[in-house]
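Example record

The entry below shows one chain as it appears in the dataset: sequence first, then structure tokens.
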Amino acid sequence: MEFERDIIKALRTWAQRSNRKPLVLRGARQVGKTTAVRLFGKEFDNFVLLNLERSEDRAYFTRFDRIETAVSAIFFDQNIDPKSGRTLLFIDEIQAEPKAVFWLRYFYEQFPYLYVIAAGSLLETLLEPKNAFPVGRVEYLVIRPVSFSEFLRAIGETAAANILEEIPLPEFAVPKLFDLFHIYALIGGMPEIVQEYAINKDLTRLKPIYNTLLTAYQDDVQKYASGEARSQILQHCIRNLFLEAGGRIKFQGFGHSNYGSRETGEALRTLEKAMLCHLVFPATQTTLPPLPDLKRQPYLQVLDTGLMNFFCGLQQSLIGTKNLGEAFQGKVIHHWVGQQILANFDSPLDQLNFWVREKNQSSAEVDFVLPFENRLVPVEVKSGKSGKMRALQIYMDACDHDFAVRLFAEKIALHPAVTPSGKKYSLLNLPYFLGGQLNEYLVWMKKK
């Protein structure tokens, strides 16, 4: 069973552009890059898959000195007439042959009729300035774990997926969508997990897949490590990523270790390049652009909340929950909202942001801030009506607009609010399963 990802729409948009460049897919391993391109390849007259971890496929780039000869050899071996329609060439695990990475520029310049996509589980390590990556001659697209709407379609809840797109959402749909979201929030968005659950609806069958995924990430450390000491700290950081996720962290002594700030920071940034985590540094201003303050403690967002739930042993306690805001001191739903926001981003330049004001007598923190038109909109994730919004009100007093959002376990409501100092603003309350559609609801809010 295969389910179509939203990323297919983005791939179609790329393919329709007359000035398209070779497309480089970025994303952690096992998020579905290869599967998505295979599905997309069915829409072409010819589809060629080269996996450069195989020596026979890598040979096209090692045996020949000219790209024209290599392309001719590929068409010859695949028994394809270059004039026989549209051809998609997918170069997977491209990091295994640096010459193939360098040649991407020539695909763009000399073979504009070819549709070329490249991907690789360790591709991020090639994006350093010291490497001859063809900057300006390729474009990028990020693939992340399955979104809520993708999950709904995967498990056959087509009506729920369709109604989720209605702005505003009909009130009658809210209870069922909460129930479905709680299942999604429990198991996560890794494609293999979602596919297995869609087939069997059996949580017990997922455990071996979680273990396999986590083991694979740990095994990958050897490919990033340049020595035994670096391997050990990377192993330590991977083991503790999911335990420390969902909160602000310190590099010094990360994961109850004796490692210093510098070595931990380098290890976590390596894992960030592999897209296993995001180090989300806070902004301190309330205007665009949200400039992260790298001197302050970052918030740790990991690849997938379902993996976090499994690794931390939270899944059993989440079964049957009616309000994720109350689970694990709100950590689970806060992290899930971050993942939903990220799922809506397809550019590697898009980043999560939150806001802080850290003073001795009056510190405040807003969960997320979202760029919207000329505003930086605060987004609070609260457990219910009684959730205090002191930090949000401080932010609203400091910002130059009157938009604010609260995500919690209630229905949609838009109403006027006033800060203690008297500033009037509009507060949009949304059920937290709409965290991936914040931009659409801000557009709706602006029109009201």
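Notes for this example: The first strand starts at residue 23 and ends at 26. The chain is about 40% helix and 15% strand.
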